[in-house]
Amino acid sequence: MITPYTSNLNPSQEGIPDYDVAVIGCGVSGANIARRLSAYKIRVAVLEKAADVSFGTSKANSGIVHGGFHHNKKYLKARLELLGNLMFERLRRELDFPFKRCGIIVAALHEDEMKAVEHLYMQGVENGVIGIELCSRERLLELEPKLSSDTVGGLYAPGGGIVEPYRFVFALVESAMKNGVHFYTNYRVSAAERDNAAGRWTVRAADGRSIRARFVVNAAGLFADEVSSIFGGEQFKITGRKGEYYLLDRMTKARPERVVFPVPTSVSKGMLVIPTVEGTVLVGPTAEATENKEDFSTTSERLEQILDSGRKMIPSLSRNDVITNFAGIRPVLDEDFYIEPSKKAPAFVQVAGIQSPGLTASPAIGEYVKDLLKGIGLELTERSDWDPFVDRRPRARELSPFELDSLIAQDPAWGNVVCRCENVTEAEIVEAIRMGHHTLDGVKYFTRAQMGRCQGGFCTYKIIKIIMRETGLSYEAITKHGGESRVLEGEL
Amino acid sequence: MKELRYDAVVIGGGAAGMAAALEIDAAGFSCAIVEREDHLGGILMQCIHNGFGLHEFSEELTGPEFAERFATKVAASKIAVYLGTTVTNFKAEGISESGASVKELICSSTDFGVMRILARTVVLAMGCRERNRGNVRIPGSRPAGVFTAGLAQRLVNIEGYIPGKEVVIIGSGDIGLIMARRMSWVGCHVKAVVEIMPYPSGLTRNIVQCLHDFNIPLYLSSQTTNIFGNHRVEGVEVTPMENGALVPEKAFRIDCDTVLLSVGLVPENELSKDAGVELNATTNGPIVDSTMMTNVDGVFACGNVLHVHDLVDWVAEEARATGRNAAGWLKGERPTMQVRVKAGSNVRYANPGKLDPRRDNKVYLRSLIVKNDAVLELRLDNRVIRSIKKGHVQPSEMITLNIGPKDLDGVGSDSALELAIL
Predict the structure, then answer these.
(1) Residue B69 dihedral angles phi and psi, to the nearest 5°
(2) Is B113 within 8 Å of A405 when comparing Cβ atoms?
(3) Residue B80: which H helix or E strand, with range?
(4) Which ipTM value was assigned to this complex?
């Protein structure tokens, strides 16, 4: 498959390229902002410090499209959540990423929790959430028969859903790339200078590259505080709140039909049981402040908490079904999102503290930031040739035998099952590599190969060989997630 | 889409699959092997060390040599071999052709496209996979440099790459022990093998030849409680256990750049489950009767997909019997009466789950305990019928046992044979 627009990934240019807008950070916020801006006649660049997009908070979270009842509408985050939620159908039609409006349940296990549930219900009604119901025990068990018999009642929000967050980001990036946005990876912003006469920022990377831009958006997630400092913007401190998760095999008997939440506490929405769009089950997250924003380690104590907590709601959860555990870190600033033009740095928009419900809100954040940029002087003229659609990509596991057979006739690589656990073929791996995903993790998030029950035990060496063949990289350049994460240390 | 028909299809072309297919072919039935790799032999091909074939061929062979003996016979037979072909769907019930019930396999292959294969009988011989870090829930960070021992073995022995230089091996399973020696040979420093149990989980001969001979320390009753490093592994934390509980104040760190996991094998039965095959919760393999047939009529299982073996020789022997039984089933032979086998004291499991009192049966069992001068006791309906002296038993060494019509004289259909280790 030929995808010419991948030339917009790390484009080679002479001199210092000039853009209208530079977005720093390519998580789900940055990707939505870039994609939204790609509809206008402006030049946009996205600068990402990691080896691939969606490698930060956006890759390790619950993957929930929230139901709009957890937060009061006085908060910007609640208003953006409500708007963002409604934008997912259209985005899915345009971008073909896994999303399902499966509904969200909040299950109360004690009578005393019902007060809090009623409060959530009233808040949902106040927020205008469509179809939200307060449920009796009987109604809730009918909606979700796997719930514990201790369930006393709860809440049901049919508009909540599930999404594969990294696939969402990849699709947004592909769409933006297709419409001319430039993406730079391994671009760790290290310095910035403002030329007020020219009305330009020069944004320098640690590796010596630089670009110029009239406007800069700070969507740097956990590191938005550092980026703000570099640009002479507001001083604030993003703290990390780590969330650990367990991933369960798709064969587990504990897979619910809907996302199951406990009754929230003042600190967090609690540990949930999530049926992922791709068929596995996720349990978590914990919520714990962490000093080191690059420490994604898990602990046995927290992991035990997750299982205990999950089992209270769904007793059939078994540790035998666990295939992996991981942690993500939410960027915490204040109670609310901080999205506004800087009062200190010119032509600089802060998009910081995007913790939950950031993924849900992200399409609305794109819209909101577009309007903020317009408000501070960015002229926006719609492009007549903007194409909101990306090509639909076949996946062997979703095809009928007849469809797959005809694909194999065109390209035999469709017949080579590389990842047996998730049924991923060589053709899909090659496509991931051609789309610019050159690390083992990048290939994993794009294709699901190595994401199943054997966790790459059988297919890792095959994927390494395919990456080397397709890119011409030597074995020393094969990494798990870029940088120093080298996979092989020598040759015989 | 290609459509093919055979009397029997064997899923998997390792030692078990080849041995079973050869028997079916020898009995005159049409038979196919479907193998996802580009070669027969399965995981034996990366086991380039010797120690294979002592029972089967009365000589010591390497893995590829052992496999070649069977592959040569397969090549000389009428067996159809589909390499590079993965079964993606297996339906064993509800499909019939000209009035007879058949099984349906949907397979993907670069050479043949998608194939639909119909067969009267299916032999499951898919082998097993390695348990990984997630399965044993080792906490810590998730850097590059954590491999299952089998993946590392593949990288070194076939692909020609060295996964790392300073190695800690978690778990003392046989592949881990073999890799301790292999990594030492390629110039790596194997700093420790860490085993959670108070005894090694691999064969004694491997402890001697792969650890003692290379002065590699083995930490028993020790749990790996952390893996350090954000990008590449930087070390592990090991916490000793006393009386089954962790002693955190005795925890220590070992610096390393690579972690190999040898923490057990799991039969790969996802296809079997799709087809409605019932599994034994202890072995994770199908529950089989005296003919190695699962609960699904005409679907048999043998080798590591049935239960994890420690010697390929026993795999070949078990698979041959299974192949003969599958051929018998095709001829219409059915056991008239079967005696249930029960795992008694100190026995983890015994396979098969039923015995035919009219025939010679081979039983494979594993001990739960480590013991010298043990006694294996056979109790038929609570009456001791035989006591066998065992110089030494341990969980890592499978025990085999012949039980014939003499032992089972006069049993009824409600009878049960209990096996106990005392």
Answers:
(1) -60, -40
(2) yes
(3) strand B80-82
(4) 0.95
Q: pLDDT tens track of chain B, all 422 residues?
A: 999 999 999 999 999 999 999 999 999 999 999 999 999 999 999 999 999 999 999 999 999 999 999 999 999 999 999 999 999 999 998 888 888 899 999 999 999 999 999 999 999 999 999 999 999 989 999 999 999 999 999 999 999 999 999 999 999 999 999 999 999 999 999 999 999 999 998 988 999 999 999 999 999 999 999 999 999 999 999 999 999 899 999 999 999 999 999 999 999 999 999 999 999 999 999 999 999 999 999 999 999 999 999 999 999 999 999 999 999 999 999 999 999 999 999 999 999 999 999 999 999 999 999 999 999 999 999 899 999 999 999 998 999 999 999 999 888 888 999 999 99
- Catalytic (active site) residue A66: yes
Which has the closest alpha carbon to A299: B266, B228, B91? B228
Structural domain for A437, as ranges: 396-477
- Kindly state whether B106 is in contact with chain A, defined as any CB-CB distance less than 8 angstroms: yes
CATH of the domain at A441: 1.10.10.1100
Q: How far is CA A100 from CA A104, A161, A351, B64, in A?
A: 11, 5, 27, 48
What tokens appear for B410 in the block?
A: 């006069």
DSSP calls for B394-414: -TTS-EEEEE-TTTTTT--TT
Domain spanning B132-263, CATH class: alpha beta
Closest listed residue to residue B261, CA positions, set B140, B349, B348, B355: B140
Q: Does A333 touch chain B (CB under 8 A)?
A: no
The superfamily in CATH containing domain B2-129+266-334 is FAD/NAD(P)-binding domain (3.50.50.60)
Enter the DSSP assignment of B184. H
Q: Tell me whether residues A480 and B143 touch, CB distance under 8 A.
A: yes
- What chain A residue is nearest to B284 in terms of C-alpha separation? A320
A296 close to B (CB below 8 A): yes
pTM of the model: 0.95
Quote the minimal CA–CA distance from A163 to chain B in Å.
Answer: 23
DSSP 8-state code for residue A9: B
Nearest to A252 by CA among A310, A326, A324, A318: A318
What is the least distance, in Å, from the CA of A135 to any CA of chain B? 35
Task: Kindly list the residues from chain B whose CB atom is less than 8 angstroms away from the CB atom of residue A408.
Answer: 108-110, 113-114
